Amino acid sequence: MRKLTAALSLLMLAALALPAQAAEVAMLDWRRALMETDAAQRSMSELESRIGGQQQQAQSLGQELQQMQQRLQQEGELMSEADRQAAVQEFQQKGAEFEQLRQQVIQAQQQAEQQFLQEAEPKLEQAVDQIIERHGVEVLVEPQGVLHSDRDLPDLTDEVTQVLNSLF
């Protein structure tokens, strides 16, 4: 992914250095192209099925923590010291459990994303090369890298997604 990012950055700098009339300039949102592929959607569905239970459990625990916090704020002064301490201890215990679940979900998401990007990088490069050749693009920029253009730049993102779908 670093090669692709570096190449896109170089292309963006070249686009700024060259007048737009001297080169065929196009735009590509490579992140969107990847994430809209069928393979990315399958990967996200697989991840959801793997960690969906943990996400639901974390969400339920988060709601329970909010209710406990409200109860402690509203009724804490009326509780006996022992009851208040027990409620605070339970709140802290559930808070730690919530944080652990949250970290597991985040880690699983990051690992799945990294695995998908490693698998997709060569295919993305191949798809981008095909589209560049097909359109005779001399300069390819990311949408976030375009500071100004007097004309609408061709957006090749959907076309790259289509080629990626055929490669996965």
Secondary structure tally, helices: 5
Unreliable stretches: 6-23
> How confident is the prediction overall: mean pLDDT?
85
The span between the termini is 17 Å
- Shape descriptor reads elongated
- Radius of gyration, in angstroms, nearest whole number: 25 Å
What string, H for helix and E for strand, traces the elements in order? HEHHHEH
Q: In what range is the share of β-strand residues?
A: under 5%
Q: Could you give a short account of the major beta sheet?
A: 2 strands, parallel
The helix/strand class is mainly alpha
List how many beta strands DSSP finds.
2
Q: Into which percent range does the helicity of residues fall? A: over 70%
Number of domains: 1
Structure summary:
With 168 residues, the chain is mostly helical. 75% of the residues lie in helices and 4% in strands. It has five helices and two strands, in the order H-E-H-H-H-E-H.
Can you tell me about this structure?
There is one protein chain. This protein has a two-stranded parallel sheet. Helix 4 (81-135) packs across helix 5 (157-167). The protein contains five helices and two strands. The protein has one domain. The chain is mostly helical. 75% of the residues lie in helices and 4% in strands. InterPro entries: Chaperone_Skp, Skp_dom_sf. Residues 66-86 are annotated as: Disordered.
Question: Which keywords apply here?
Answer:
168 residues, mainly alpha, two-stranded parallel ribbon, 5 helices, 4% strand, elongated
Blueprint of the fold:
Layout: H1 2-17, E1 25-27, H2 30-35, H3 38-75, H4 81-135, E2 139-141, H5 157-167
Parallel strand pairs: 1-2
Helix pairs in contact: 3-4, 4-5
Protein name: OmpH family outer membrane protein
Signal peptide: 1-22
Biased composition (Low complexity): 66-77
